[in-house]
């Protein structure tokens, strides 16, 4: 079955392992992720001011392109793209004046933006369409004894109208990993912000966030963390270098995209090229557990 | 003697601007402090989120415009999600940032990003920071 797919910039750069593993996993599950044509950056962060519609155009143009290509939905992997596209669409389409103004701004486009394209996160596709029962049947190497902390961050659960599950107590990632044979652990800091783009101007803030989030996962018994956001992955994984320098007692923990571990469990294996996109060695724990 | 208690006594043009840009009524806040209690980066702020709302009610807008707080907030929406009055505090923070950014006042100078970081940072970090922190 074909699924129209919006990758976003980071999946073509620092998070190639995310895209690569997602495509592989969906193939195993008999789905084809078809990359839409002519996509651009989604804008990465939703602009919350009421008056500046120009700041919504990056997102809206992608949705317009999808309408042009007669797509009725876009499957998104990156949490930031998912969140920004959803909120931009709502902000523009729920107010007729905004919708008209945005179309006026895009007067050179061939068609009018109508807001017909649904935005769906891959985790929702896995839960509602593929179903976790079907995934369980396809498991070749159960992730037995692997204790996984699902890190949702902000963008999969807030604002609550776009939460992919309960916004205060989600279980979708834990349920997915249970179906893969792992022990999905709901650790206390799984919904807390990683510091996001503050990683550039306020590195000390993100280092402390990383310390607190990973330590929370460690206390809850997690051996690894999974995420679906490349910025969370950067802060929680790459920033462990600085976190170790800052906090002597800090113990490092590998951080995976959820699709990477799905690939291991479903027989797609581990690709050596994914390893170099990680800071904390991801292979060690998989070898210890006899998974690769 | 009668005395009229009214928002008109304390509000000023900047309060109007904050309310216009955020779409929020700052006088809805009754200071329960839930926003500050849930904020993951409150320890780095000079004015806590509930204090931001209180100062806006008092019309102390200069203190808000010049605060560190508005640049620490990463719009994680914890405060907006938990506010029992339904105030989107994160939108008030965004309005305060925007008032600065529209005067070309920001906190990120692209020339000062560390070279080592530039090689590693994902595009979403850079674009996100440019959009939220540069005028």
Textual characterization of the structure:
The complex is a heterodimer of chains A (292) and B (135). By secondary structure, chain A is α/β, with parallel strands linked by helices. Chain A folds into two domains: 120 residues, Up-down Bundle (Glutathione S-transferase Yfyf (Class Pi), Chain A, domain 2), CATH 1.20.1050; 159 residues, Rossmann fold, CATH 3.40.50. In chain A, the strands form two sheets. Chain A has a four-stranded parallel β-sheet with strand order 2-1-3-4. In chain A, α1 runs parallel beside α12 and α9 crosses α11. The longest helix of chain A has 17 residues. Chain A is globular and about 60 Å long. Chain A starts with a strand and ends with a helix. The mean pLDDT of chain A is 97. With 135 residues, chain B is mostly helical. Chain B has two domains: 96 residues, Fumarate Reductase Iron-sulfur Protein, Chain B, domain 2; 29 residues, no CATH class. Helices cover 54% and strands 0% of the residues of chain B. The longest helix of chain B has 13 residues. The mean pLDDT of chain B is 94. At the A-B interface, α8 and α10 of A face α2, α7, α8 and α10 of B.
Say which CATH homologous superfamily of the largest domain in chain B is assigned: Alpha-helical ferredoxin
| Uncertain spans of chain B | none
Structural class of chain B: mainly alpha
Instruction: Please give the radius of gyration of chain B in angstroms.
Output: 16 Å
Q: What order do the helices and strands come in, and which of them pair?
A:
The complex is a heterodimer of chains A (292) and B (135).
Chain A lengths: L1 E5 L9 H13 L3 E4 L21 H12 L4 E4 L2 H15 L2 H10 L12 E4 H9 L1 H7 L8 E4 L21 H8 L3 E3 L12 H4 L1 H17 L4 E4 L2 H9 L1 H7 L8 E3 H8 L6 H4 L7 H6 L4
Parallel strand pairs in A: 1-2, 1-3, 3-4, 5-6, 5-7, 7-8
Chain B lengths: L6 H4 L2 H10 L11 H5 L10 H10 L2 H5 L3 H4 L5 H5 L6 H13 L13 H6 L2 H11 L2
């Amino acid at each position: 079955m074909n699924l129209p797919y919006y990758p976003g910039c980071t999946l073509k750069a620092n998070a190639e392992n995310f895209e690569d593993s997602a495509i592989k996993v969906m193939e195993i599950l008999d789905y084809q992720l078809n990359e839409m044509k002519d996509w651009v950056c989604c804008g990465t962060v939703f602009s919350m001011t009421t008056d500046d519609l120009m700041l919504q155009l990056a997102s809206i143009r992608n949705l317009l392109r999808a309408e042009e290509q007669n797509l009725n939905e876009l499957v998104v992997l990156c949490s930031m793209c998912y969140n920004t596209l959803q909120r931009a669409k709502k902000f523009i389409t729920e107010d007729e004046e905004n919708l008209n103004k945005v179309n006026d701004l895009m007067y050179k486009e061939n068609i009018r933006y109508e807001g017909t394209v649904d935005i769906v996160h891959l985790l929702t596709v896995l839960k509602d369409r593929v179903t976790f029962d079907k995934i369980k049947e396809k498991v070749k190497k159960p992730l037995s004894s692997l204790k996984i902390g699902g890190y949702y961050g902000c963008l999969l659960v807030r604002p609550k109208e776009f939460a992919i599950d309960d916004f205060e107590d989600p279980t979708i990632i834990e349920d997915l990993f249970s179906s893969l044979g792992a022990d999905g652990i709901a650790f206390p800091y799984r919904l807390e912000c990683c510091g996001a783009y503050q990683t550039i101007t306020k590195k000390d803030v993100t280092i402390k966030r990383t310390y607190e989030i990973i330590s929370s996962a460690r206390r809850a018994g997690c051996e690894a963390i999974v995420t679906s956001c490349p910025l969370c992955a950067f802060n929680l994984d790459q920033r462990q270098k600085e976190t170790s320098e800052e906090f002597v007692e800090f113990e490092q923990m590998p951080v995976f995209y959820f699709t990477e571990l799905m690939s291991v469990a479903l027989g797609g294996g581990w690709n050596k090229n994914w390893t170099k996109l990680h800071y904390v060695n991801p292979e060690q724990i998989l070898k210890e557990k006899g998974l690769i | 003697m009668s005395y009229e208690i009214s928002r008109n006594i304390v509000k000023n043009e900047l309060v109007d601007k904050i309310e216009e840009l955020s779409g929020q009524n700052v006088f809805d806040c009754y200071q329960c402090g839930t926003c500050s209690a849930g904020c993951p980066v409150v320890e780095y702020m000079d004015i806590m989120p509930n204090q931001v709302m209180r100062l806006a009610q008092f019309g102390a807008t200069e203190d808000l415009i010049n605060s560190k707080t508005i640049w620490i907030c990463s719009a994680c929406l914890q405060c907006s999600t938990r506010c029992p009055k339904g105030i989107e505090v994160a939108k008030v923070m965004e309005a305060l940032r925007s008032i600065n950014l529209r005067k070309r006042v920001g906190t990120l100078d692209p020339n000062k990003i560390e070279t080592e970081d530039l090689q590693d940072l994902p595009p979403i970090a850079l674009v996100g920071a440019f959009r939220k922190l540069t005028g």
